[in-house]
Amino acid sequence: MLLVDDHAVVRSGLARVLRAGGWQEVGEAANEAEGLEKARGSAWNLVVIDAMLGAEDGLELAGRLRSLYPRLPLMVLSMSSEPGLVRRALGLGVRAFVVKDAQPEEVVAATLAARYGSLYLDARVAPAFLSGAEGEDRQARILEAVRRGLGNQEIASLLNLSVSSVRAELRALFDVHGVKDRQGLARVLHLTLE
Asked: For the sheet containing 120-121, what is the strand order?
């Protein structure tokens, strides 16, 4: 298993937990560049990625790994359980999503589920994520706000969300529709921007 996290003490602690949980070889990387380099160098059974790699977006690394190694199982650890972030991760092919303050045995269980092709969602993430109608309604409302030309802060205020939730929802929409920005989203969805 390859563990990508920007905090050395977190990597070290997780590696110890994972070795005790049955993973014999746990490689470590501190950032996206190291993660990509080490992923190229070995036949890993799983890559575990921190959602926030310092200033880097861990989900961008997940997306790059998915495109380079389509069969490589991926798991995300995050401080956030925001449904938009979870949807974005799963849209990139991530098989497990666990909040960082989970119990060690839950982290090990998630790694094994992801390794063997099962979907694993942290118990605190699943209820919000699985209420799909609410998520679809939120995305529809965000798309309408984008069409109206509202910025992230305005959308957050309008929908009673945090700005980071709005960003995560937008990134999930970009990923799902294969675009890089709001203009691309408008083009693909035939939205007329105000």
From this structure: 27-29, 2-4, 47-50, 74-78, 96-99, 120-121
